[in-house]
Amino acid sequence: MIRVIFAEMESVVPEFEELMLCGYCKQKFNETDQSPKLLSCKHYFCLQCMRTSLNKGQELYCVYCWKRTEIGELGPESLPTYAPVLCLTKNFSQMKLGVKVPDKPAKVISENCHTHAMPLALWCHTCCSPVCRACATTTDHSTHQIKSQNEAKDQLIAELQIDLASMNKMLSEIQRLAMQQREFLLKILEACVTLKTHVEADLTNNASHFELTETRDTLAKLRLNLSMAENLSDVHNLYSSVNVEKQRLQLRYQEMYLQCQLDDLIRNSSVIFDFQLLKQALSNIHNGDPVYPSNSRALPTNQQNPILFLANYCMSQLYSRHMLSKQQNVNGTLDYHNHNSVPPINYLSHNPPQHLVMPAPKNIYQENNLMMQNMIHSPQIRNPANMCPLYYFNIEVNGAQLGRIVIEVRADVAPKMAKNFGLLTTGEAGMGYKGCQIFQCWEGESVITGDFEHNNGRGGRSIFEDSYFLPDDTKLMAVRGTVGMRRTQKRHDNLGMVGSQFRIILQEMRGFTGIFGHVVEGLELVEKISTYGDTAGKPTKNILIAKCGKL
């Protein structure tokens, strides 16, 4: 009975030892750098691995389940230590797992061949059994590999070592591939977040309601002027104005109608689009033929595939970029607004559908081109340049040129912040951002600058007489790539006043207000700058705005 208990305990020991090893580096836990830290998913790894291999900004990713654990600014040290495992590691050598029994007597194995009564001095590698010299000469073993038992033992040990080394190498490769797959999935996640940001910006910055409001105001003024017209000349002038407004509305209506036709095609298609299918679909729209290509069909709502829908939407955006690139190559010029964004395709035809009965103005559309010369800008850059000016910032790191960041400012919804930011960027107010340092960098989160007085977050002021002002209530969301004013660290913080400091956001920050623009070029540069900060957000390099101004 005692022997059975001891055998069972002996089989359990390796499982206890496995608990005392880090699941990532396979090193034994201790009370210092190898202390076991518990993640939110209840898996645990050593502190060193969390610092180096599992850390991604202010988050840790478990290599078992890929769930993330937020660690904030305190780092992996703030996670709870898995005390039971640490206690087991420290006291395992003193633990008595069973009753020690006397060594088992050696099993007596017959050393002679039962057939020839000769010593079993040889080993048949093919049969994996001991044989005597007489057995080795029989026809049963004539083609087998026969060696002495010592040679066979050495050969088996060598093969086992090779197999173990191969398995260890394969395990390392599997781990490398798993990390590579994790990086790929993180890139997919980042791309989805970027796409989400573009769509949210489209919803937030959609100018249709502004156009409708302006048009209603114009029509109201025309009605008022009509009621006040006294002579033929006044009526004739009004007639000309109404015709111009009528043609503009007709163009807008045709544009939106045909855009919605293609939107329906993208949403309901049962096949993945390529450039050829998109070209065919657009041709059908232009010619008034059935919208769906020959190998596609409309899907009922309950059968629509969201992944297919998203793929076709992205393909249409790529097609738009492709057509824009071709147009720019033909024209030989590059519009800065269009260059930094992917404008949606304009699907107006030279001969619009017959049911659009209002006559379109002549010579509006280009022949043999699916895109208009003056394309609508992308959701983030669709307003006139005077309403959304562009400002550039040339960045230096330790005296070396790093690159340029371009920010578009929403003067239409943030007039006060836009004016303050613009004059500080150009230096027209006698002070500004030129020579200003980036004084806070949070990896993957944000960077902060604009304190041209102290470069530490406690200085800077606005162009206005009171030095500080309440920011515009823009209702713009603080998502990746947006730019917002930051309050200075002074006694009037609780009033929400801002001066000159601003933050470029790299991940969504709920509750952050004062958004007035977004980055249209150089967001990857901002990402790189954010990695220069230490755990407290202080830059480890001298990051400087060498030059800035308006484009």
Automatic annotation (TrEMBL):
<protein>
    <recommendedName>
        <fullName>Peptidylprolyl isomerase</fullName>
    </recommendedName>
</protein>
<keyword id="KW-0479">Metal-binding</keyword>
<dbReference type="InterPro" id="IPR000315">
    <property type="entry name" value="Znf_B-box"/>
</dbReference>
<dbReference type="InterPro" id="IPR002130">
    <property type="entry name" value="Cyclophilin-type_PPIase_dom"/>
</dbReference>
<dbReference type="InterPro" id="IPR001841">
    <property type="entry name" value="Znf_RING"/>
</dbReference>
<dbReference type="GO" id="GO:0008270">
    <property type="term" value="F:zinc ion binding"/>
</dbReference>
<keyword id="KW-0862">Zinc</keyword>
<dbReference type="Pfam" id="PF00643">
    <property type="entry name" value="zf-B_box"/>
</dbReference>
<dbReference type="InterPro" id="IPR017907">
    <property type="entry name" value="Znf_RING_CS"/>
</dbReference>
<dbReference type="Pfam" id="PF00160">
    <property type="entry name" value="Pro_isomerase"/>
</dbReference>
<dbReference type="GO" id="GO:0006457">
    <property type="term" value="P:protein folding"/>
</dbReference>
<dbReference type="GO" id="GO:0003755">
    <property type="term" value="F:peptidyl-prolyl cis-trans isomerase activity"/>
</dbReference>
<keyword id="KW-0863">Zinc-finger</keyword>
<dbReference type="InterPro" id="IPR029000">
    <property type="entry name" value="Cyclophilin-like_dom_sf"/>
</dbReference>
<feature type="domain" description="B box-type">
    <location>
        <begin position="113"/>
        <end position="149"/>
    </location>
</feature>
<dbReference type="GO" id="GO:0005737">
    <property type="term" value="C:cytoplasm"/>
</dbReference>
<dbReference type="GO" id="GO:0016018">
    <property type="term" value="F:cyclosporin A binding"/>
</dbReference>
<feature type="domain" description="PPIase cyclophilin-type">
    <location>
        <begin position="392"/>
        <end position="550"/>
    </location>
</feature>
<dbReference type="InterPro" id="IPR013083">
    <property type="entry name" value="Znf_RING/FYVE/PHD"/>
</dbReference>
<feature type="domain" description="RING-type">
    <location>
        <begin position="22"/>
        <end position="65"/>
    </location>
</feature>
